[in-house]
Amino acid sequence: MFNRREFLGLVGAVTSAAPALLRGAQGGEWGSPVFDLHFHLRGQPAANITHLDGAGITKANLLTRAASSDQVRAVQAAAPDRFTWFCSADPSRPEGIDALTQSVKSGARGFGEMKYHLATDGPEFQRAYALAAELRVPILIHFQEVDHFENEGKWSTGFATSFERILKAYPNTTFIGHADAFWANVSADYRNEAAYPSGPIAAGGITDKLLGDYPNLYGDVSANSGNNMLSRDPEFTAGFLRRHQDKLMFGSDCGCTDGHGGGVSQGNNPAASRLAGKCVARETLTVLKRSASADIFRKIVWGNASALLKFSA
Ligand SMILES: [Zn+2]
Ligand SMILES: [Zn+2]
Hints:
The protein is an alpha/beta fold and 313 residues long. It has helices at residues 4-17, 19-24, 45-55, 69-78, 94-105, 123-135, 159-169, 180-184, 206-213, 223-231, 234-243, 280-291, 294-309, and strands spanning 35-40, 59-65, 83-88, 110-114, 139-142, 175-178, 217-220, 248-249. The relative contact order is 0.13. One zinc ion binds at residues 51, 55, 254, 256, 259, 265, 279-281.
């Protein structure tokens, strides 16, 4: 028998120091190590680890603003090898471009999430695309054209009409697409009528085509947008995951407290109420697991991000 202090010491070792051993190669709960590409930094270091452990996640990518680099280091120190980091800053401000450059020098492995009221093909975003190529890091972009709240405004406008031109103009930039407009446009019949369209997917949509045609584009299936797309049409989803098995990456964008749906999972967004009370990470891992072979599942939840961001278990 352990006394209480020894027992707590062991629990501490399990949750922070030995993830590779316990959740790595053998795969733990999901049968594969899992990397969450889309995890917003939480204020308390322990809260970050609680969500990973609760949802059975091996490792996650902290998304922060540039000013949070000290907090990132504290979380990384509390749980070595469990967190990578992407940094965002407003590319329409000169100090934003400087902050992005500095963050990569300080260890950020990408830009993101880039969520600004700017045009996808505007000069501000183009500065960030060029800088990402120069620094050889990917850029993760939030595309959204339908408000969740009154007067929210659009984010990275013009995905459907102008993003292909950008993919062509910046062949050395690695783009990671995410959010409502990116995933709704998997269906060819989408015309910005709803944040999260439902029903069967019409083949030949823009996002499907771009993922197939451009080696510099990846997809982050996080949030209600990614989960909704994957849940609309099981037959389509199986083929979509096969087609883009080397381009898709699991992410959660989950706000729940415990990895089991406690607290608020999708920021009280009324249009995303289908995920209220649920852990988005768990829901999306479940749909991916039932829709893909074990090999493809492992690529999407671990292998593709591991190759792109150059980490191991
Ligand atoms: Zn987002
Ligand atoms: Zn969660």
